[in-house]
Specification:
Helix content is 52%, strand content 9%. By secondary structure, the protein is mainly α. It is elongated and about 60 Å long. It comes from Entomobacter blattae.
Amino acid sequence: MRSGYVMPKFTPSAKVTRTADWGGEVILYGKDFAEASEHAKELCQREKRVFIHPYDDPAVMAGQGTLGLEFLQDFLESLDYKGLKA
């Protein structure tokens, strides 16, 4: 499955490099997130691809929430309560 990421032109090069290392095509476009997002939507429509907003999407939010719960569970399981005082 082919993936692509449209990011604003001011995106730090380290983020661009790390994203590209995962195998996706990185396109730098626009002066802000709104311009990059609009360009991504246009590309998706033209190329018959699916647009997934990086944060304003119910499925993405649910995944982030699940990640937070998993982190909290792992963190709590790793605590050593012997040194805690009430």
